[in-house]
Amino acid sequence: MHRRRRILLIGAAALVALAVIAPSTPHADIRILAHDSADRAPQRMEAAIDTGLFAVSLLVTWSRHLAR
User: Cα-flanking dihedrals φ and ψ of residue 19, to 5°?
Assistant: First the structure.
């Protein structure tokens, strides 16, 4: 019983170590900020795609009075 518990404990420690050491997914972060800096509530659109091999996130902001 102790041997089985020891094997499980070593396996769990190995998984935690792998999670800490493993590199994160490559990530592209694209931001297009076209809003007036005085605008406290700019319109915004966000999108993100994560395929497991790479990730892309997109943020676009604009002011309502600039869109007219």
Answer: -65, -35
Q: Is the pTM of this model over 0.85?
A: no
d(CA 64, CA 49): 27
Alpha carbon of 38 to those of 9, 20, 43, 66: distances in Å? 55, 41, 13, 12
**Of 10, 67, 5, nearest to 36 (Cα)?**
67
Per the structure, the count of domains in the chain is 1
Mean of pLDDT values over 7-33: 80
51: phi then psi, degrees, rounded to nearest 5 = -95, -5
Residue-number span of the structural domain to which 56 is assigned: 24-68
